[in-house]
Amino acid sequence: MNHSLLKRQLKKLGANETSPPSLEKWNNFLECIDQAYQKVDQERALMERSLMISSQEMHKVNEQLRESETRYALSAKGANDGLWDWDLETGEVYYSERWLDILGMVCKPGMIPTKNCWIDKIHMDDHQFVIEELDAHLNGETEHFQNEHRVLHSDGEYRWVLIRGLAVRDENGKACRIAGSLTDVTDRKDTEAKLEYDAVHDELTGLPNRAKFMRRITDGLEKTKTNGDYSFAVLFIDLDRFKTVNDNLGHQAGDELLMKFTEKLRSIVRSNDMIARLGGDEFVIFHEHVNREETAHQIAQRLLEELKKPIKIQGQLIYWSASIGIAVSSSTYHNADELLCDSDIAMYRAKLNGKARYEVFDPEMRSGAASLMQIETDLRRAFERKEFILHYQPIISLDNESIIGFEALVRWNHPLRGMIPPNEFIPVAEDTGLVLPIGKWILKEACHQMRVWQERFPLSNSLTIAVNLSAVQLEQADLSKQIADILEESRLNPECLRLEITESVIMKNAEQAAITVKNLRKMGVRVSIDDFGTGYSSLSYLHRFPVDTLKVDRSFINRIGQTGENCAIIQTIINLARSLNMEVVAEGVETVEQLEFLRGMDCAYGQGFYYSRPVDSRSAAEMVKDLARLEYSSGSLSVTRELSNIVQ
Question: pLDDT of 237-254, one tens digit each?
Answer without folding.
Answer: 999 878 777 776 788 888
